[in-house]
Amino acid sequence: MQxxxxxxxxxxxxxxxxxxxxxxxxxxxxxxxxxxxxxxGNVLVLTAQNQFSVDYISGVYGALLKNxxxxxxxxxxxxxxxxxxxxxxxxxxxxxxxxxxPVVEQLAPVAFDAFIPCDENAFAVTAAKRVAAGAVxxxxxxxxxxxxxxxxxxxxxxxxxSENIILMSGGQFVSEFARALKNRNVFAFKDFCRNxxxxxxxxxxxxxxxxxxxxxxxxxxxxxxxxxxNVVLTSSVAPSALTGFDRRAQSLLASGLVVDMVAxxxxxxxxxxxRAGVKSDIADAIAKRIAGDGHLxxxxxNKIKTYTELMGTDVDLNVAEHLxxxxxxxxxxPIAMVKMMCEKLxxxxxxxxxxxxxxxxxxARQIIMVVLKNSTRLSLAEIxxxxxxxxxxxxxYAVRQIEKLKESDLMLTxxxxxxxxxxx
Length: 424
Prior knowledge:
Layout lengths: L1 H20 L3 H8 L3 E5 L2 E6 L2 H20 L4 E6 L41 H12 L7 E4 L6 H11 L3 E5 H14 L2 H9 L3 E5 L8 H16 L3 E6 L11 H7 L3 E4 L5 H10 L4 H7 L7 H18 L5 H7 L10 H12 L3 H5 L5 H17 L4 H6 L6 H15 L3 H14 L1
Parallel strand pairs: 2-3, 4-7, 4-8, 5-6, 6-7
Antiparallel strand pairs: 1-2
Helix pairs in contact: 4-5, 6-7, 10-11, 16-18, 16-19
């Protein structure tokens, strides 16, 4: 009896070691190592803390466990600790037909012609078109950029231009995987995700902190790439900047082609407005004053269209100014610029316009003059008026002095460049 017990314990130890060797260390320590291993007759019984662990382990690592146990002539059963009559989760679906029906949001087709790229986004658009045309050598294609730069629109364009494509958001993938675990049809979910030519995950950062889901998704990326299929990912940041992703995950996501996108510039915004039916003169006037991203442009279009429909009248520039007061950036007047720079430089506006000759005050006054010269179309005489009615010769002298200082003072140069950017 004692010999049989020793043999059984040796087998359990060997089985644990064999399973650990075939698993990623993080997955082993998180999921399988905490299980209680026991042998009951010809069955390897694995006891978990809760039903979720049973469902996940059976779905993701069931085949591995079955193979290892089979080498010792054992079957496998996963149970919940403290539940005597716990249902046995299926280890593999070889003889169990499973079905899976995703909750898919139907999106209207979007052609690539609907995407208006600026020069900085041309590379990303070209790469997306290549993916839509067929298999590529640079999978996964990882597109990142700030909100409203067009990442999701580009993903929809790829889906609309191709056949047999799956498009999910990061949040949707998490919820669908959790639903598959709950319904015990993980294998069917896996088959669904792999039965495509291109898999697109929009907002991959939605997987952050979801370790089990992330493990499943990373395996999906590897399987699809091995099968010569395309993977497209979008994110607000580059792979190396993803929080909640370990180094292995970041490395895999960056192993294909990583391209960045920028928010639409004024010309792109104007084109978007005109295409949406906004009059060209209004589009010209407001395009540069719509801060941020393409989402705000869509909001402006909706507001103008709704006003026209409800009020039965066209929107002129005056109406647009009033209607979009909460959206459009205010014009920066020279006085407003000078006051802003006074605050940044730590000097009083009255002192800048006064006759004080303290060294720090003179330097600040000269910096303000130079910034106004480089960020506005004001004449030297006009610039002088905004800093205490000084003449154009004083402004010319200030410009020369600052240019000399910039040659040897990199900090001053950076400070002036920053002020110029904020005033434009």
